[in-house]
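User: What would this chain look like folded?
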Amino acid sequence: MSLNSNEEDEKKTPIHVEINELDPVLSTVISLDNKEIKIHAKDADDAMQFIDDIRDLEIDPAYEKKLLRKIDWMLMPIIIALMSCQLMDKTTNSYAAIMGMRADLNMLTGDVYNWVGSAFYFGYMVFEFPSNILLQRFPLSKTLSTAVMIWGVVLMCHAACHSAAPFLVCRVILGAFEGFMNPSYIILTGMWWRKKEQYMRTCVWWGFQGFGTLLGAGIAYGLAKNRVGDYSFASWRLLYIITGIITILLGVISFFHMPDSPAKAWFLNDKEKKYCLERSRENQQGFGNHKFKKSQFIESFKDPTVYIFFVYGLSYAIPNGGFNNFGSILLNGDFGFSTLDALLMNMPGGAIDIVFPMTIAYINYKFLKNRRLVSCTIVNTIVVVGMCLLNFTSPRGSRLAGYLSFYLATAVSAGVCSIISSNIAGYTKKATVNTIFLVGYCAGNIIGPQTFQAKQAPGYVGAKAAMLASFIVGTLCLISLFIIYVRRNKAKDAKRAALGDKYSIPDNVAFADLTDLENPEFRYSL
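Assistant: Here's the prediction, encoded as structure tokens.
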């Protein structure tokens, strides 16, 4: 297809070739473990339907650069807004806790408040696999946007609670619907951007959760500062109502704005859609497959890297769950900041969340040959040092530096999410690995608040020790992933070299919906 298309060629018309026009068996490949795999048309990726449209397509770098800029501007703002909203919703508890919520809901005695954070992740964990199945079976962005609108309604319901029990029920339901968010954006990132582009984009949308911290802390500060006699009911209740309204509005915008795949993008013309398809070939992944594949599900549990993702998710989330729910309490009680100052002290962390991941992604791309696991390991080691400062030093300045070092870990968790997007192929396998990773993440967030025992207040020595241990384990996980992926790439290269001239690249294997272990052309990002 010529790139010098006239204006009529670039009209926003659908591109489509019926899958039953292709051979029932498209090709046969030999996997890394010498297993013969037949690629059937009915099992192929959705992108295979459009393969004839790009058969002779040649990529013009200048045109692709313009297209990439367009994709970034059309998709990243809404993704950023929703991710910001997600963290704002999560950290609302931390702000509300020092704005009178614990007293109003009788949560001042014992460890009742600990379960506020944990309850959210019980809902998240239990519904994580069903949410991934729904995202696979139904239009991805429409399913996500509907979940966002429902979670906004549930968030507003928090304001109507007058005791701990209904509040905890709201937290469980909220977790169930927020569980759609992360797997959706991991899938979307793999669908729209090349592997080399994914870490920066993931750092942007993951890191901009920090804007949610800035906005949430700012709203909470404004409500807390003017709370006396100015509102007909408690300022913490207004906080939940305001954040709920913002969430619902963003869900509506997402429903109409976010396309389910590049092939259905309302803002792309025909030529741009074809470019998107060709760009995805490099990833050895397409647009997804709506059929649940038992073989890919089973492979997920045989792949040792999946358990490493689980352990990393657990290790990152234990400190995360603690900070999200007890961060302001720690600043208020242990560090000695006033209520208003403690709310404001959340803002530097939010700023670090935004700036640092993008900085690390740039350094990684410019100087480390896009080796994400290397940069993530370095950053996680720095966080370990920060946790040592928090645990073992006395001056408030050094302890505060240790406290703020937690926010550096956002760049690492973003890197791990981008590794899942890049290095796990096969739509069912990706959904399963997403689930396992996020179950670990949920378990950690359930455990995290429980490490803050009331009897250890205000210093919470046990919680701080748990944070340090968690980041050490997370660092070991990153090193393990790097070693495994290096070995797998070498094994695939050796197998190809052994075949010599006998090896030929299977036609369109990138769009066969094969797993990373099945596809002989797949190489792991490091």
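Residues 10 and 270 are 5 Å apart (CA to CA). If you want, I can go into more detail on any region.
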